[in-house]
Task: structure prediction
Amino acid sequence: MQTARAMRSRPQPFTTRPGIAERIGLPYMDGLLALSVLALAGFSIFTLAQATTNDVPGDPYYFVERQAIYVALGIIGMALLTRIDYSRFRELRVGVYTFMCVSIVMVFFFGFAARGSRRAFDLPFFSFQPSELGKLLLILALAGFVIDGARRGSERQRTARYLFLGLAPAALVFLQPDLGTSLVFGVVTLAVMFVGGVRWTHFAVIAASLVTIIALVLVVAPKLGTPVLKGYQEERLTSFLHPSRDPADAGYQQDQAKIAIGSGQKTGRGDQATQTRLDFVPERHTDFIFAVIGERYGFMGAALVLSLYALLIWRALRIVTLSKNLYGTLVAGGITAMLMFQVFVNVGMSLGIMPITGIPLPLMSYGGSSVLATFLAVGVLESIYMQARLSQKSRFAW
Amino acid sequence: MYLRSDDRRPQMSSGFALRVTLIGGLGVVLFAVLFFRLWYLQVLSGDKYLAEANNNRTREIRVSAPRGEVLDRNGKVLVGNRTSLALQVNPQKLPAKQGERRAELARLGKLVNMSLRRVRRTMHEELKLAPSSPVTLRKDVPSTLVYYLQENEASFPGAEVQQVFVRRYPQGTLAAHILGNVGEINADQLKEPRNRGVQSGDQIGQDGVEYEYDRYLRGRAGATRIQVDSMGRPTPNGQLSVKEPVPGDNLRLTIDSSLQAAGEGALAARGLPGAFVAMNVHTGAVLGLGSYPTFDPSIFTKPLTQSQVNALYRDPVAAPITDRATQGLYPTGSTFKPFTAMAALNGGFLGLDEPITDNGGLTVGGITFQNAGGGAYGTLTLPSALQVSDDVFFYTLGYRMSGTTQQQRWAHKLGVGEATGIDLPSESSGLIPTPKWRDRLYKKGLTDRPWSAGDNVNLAVGQGDVQLDPLQMAVGYSTIANGGTVVTPHVGKEVDDTAGRVVQEISPAPKRHVKVNPAFRSAILEGLHAAAQSPGGTSYSVFGGFPVPVAGKTGTAERPPYADQSWYVVLAPYPNPRIVVAVTFEQGGFGVDSAAPAALTILSEYFKKQATAVGSAGGRVE
Result:
């Protein structure tokens, strides 16, 4: 391994001209990782094609066409990132971090408001949500800061610095307001710190503060008359604890999703999937797409999707251990945690065991920013994998 | 800390391995939770959720069935249906915002003259019974309202005009007490077993034959099951099943509407509260039954106003809602005498040809009971005593039977002093006083004296505590006339389906048979015939010229503090009667003055009809 860097700087002159597959780097990619991602994206298009036909009057394949374009763009982006040495991002960490923060702040000024929240820019072809890409950018930058700052300051100062770097953008996103995505920011921050080796005692303090803050936000602040969360946010966060309290509100949505999934039984209801087809389940092409899968394809379909996610996360976790350098390890760890958190919270929400937070299901939910960001994240993973493979093989394709 | 600044991939230090393992372990746990939960929802509870999903997407729209018609014996429509427009509010389509909702309800209320408070109360009560189904605010709205709502559809979301069936009474007030009325089922009625299958908001019979034969008349509501989306909007091609409503069967009554009209006309002509019954003595089929004052049954098709409620229910003197034919209890006076005669003859207290001398009075326990007119008729046998309605003759019989309950037992045997079992609700049972009854009252301190021989004397002429209604008198006279059959009176004749086929004949079995000695029967009928149509008879002045031989008895009962109760009961034709007519008037004075002329009117109508029926078709009517 130590020799890899040396060999990379001196290309061998007598290698034969590589073939096209070699040039893309196919032989050095993690095939299972790519397979799981492509299968999930394909399943998403398939599901949207069946479940959202005629949702938009006059354009029966509105969601399908767009999702297919996003997936195609995502695949291209993934392939490009695979070829790029991810370590570049470590050098660009300040720029990346600045770009992320600025793009999120810009939303406050130039973004368009949808359903009471300002999250995205309205571009000609699709609406771009900076916070989705921001998750990946935060991981890339924060991992760089962690390595860069390893020798500066005391351990306590370092922990505080990482926390600040991660939580500042999280706070910005929270103000959009987008509670779900800001939680993802928080989770990836903690994950990078965790893999980066921050002391257990520091995590214990962080956990204790979290509990205190949650108690303050949910219990004490409303009683003092200065609620931090918006009414609907608190309602959504707590409704899964008492799902049938108010069937006309947040609990209702979750109830309907649960009924949809349960009614799918083992093999699904196919076109008889009335819960999702007749609008009982809200946001069925985005946040609640897992309910559509559960109702249409039953346990078989839903379990297949979950298995694909398990495969994806297993491969990601494996890359954490394979990475040739610590930067790659931290980045892979952050991405793994991001995917794991999103999948669990989104699917758990549909299954009625997690609160409604508005986190999309990676690759499955309709939405350009989310699909693109996830593909790019997987591209980074592939890059880490490929670099590790190449350094082991001691040879170059280009 | 295993971190090194040169960004070398560390050898798998134990700290790092632990952390990666923890992340992996967390992943395993989280996925296990998701898989288990998925399994639980889809495989273990799938049936439950599938049922919930199906329940979610289907709505049943009830289509009310037209109620059966009520016809008289000749097929004349007494109660029909008409379609009417009802203003309904669908609570699910009302604006979600409280303020807008209130404003719309207030505007709707204004259109149909209802205060916002009343609108909200109506909605609240209806929704308690049937959550989320449309609420009928007002029936019988004008069609101009329909146009108005159509033109302003946007400002009245959730307001609908529905076609509903409303009762129609083509004969006006005719037979109002028999017909009764329909009304929306209430919460208590919903729980009764007789209303199984009826849903809240449905109309059921509340009184009269509408109540009694409700299960035939009501029909079965239809239902259309449709598929709806989450907003409750029907989906295209979403009709799942259609169950057509089944109209109710028609009820044909034994009532003859022309005879009924004659009877009611006779009551109204006298202008006093009263009642009449005309009945077949062999079958108990009621040809006419009326009470005065009466009411217009069609007022029940709309919500009652306060003044209507007051007039119907709060006026104790007129009491138009009371059916005096089956609920009006009065002392009967001399019309009770045939029952006394039957009791005395059967108990051996009077020989068939035994003469009794009337000296103008009978002294019992220091009190002298005199003839009503104050005169004396000398020595009489039973028929002549009935002819002139000699009181002393019957005082004597009553006195002879004191110490026994012979009078009471025979009265009950003949069918008076107990509910007749007619197919109308709320019939009263009447009262034949007995020693036991009075003694018990006395012990409780509710009366001033125990039973004495004087009570027997009073009962013998239908005075004192005796309380009977016209229907019971008709039944009692029938029992004597038909030779001992205690008929069960009925106004229902048959139930026909909409095509006119008979679904069910209504001919209730007689209550019992009593042994009536034919000699006793003819002696009594002879006396009654003489009373009506021999010179010197009590009602000769009324029936003397009537072409059909009849047997009738007047009654004039003291009913303090009111003026005398006027009675007349008549059997015709003599000697083998087919029809009995009983008439009574409150404060009508002598039986011959008010009740007998009314009975004559009714009998004339009956025999006029007989004559034309026999003359034209040769068939028998009744």
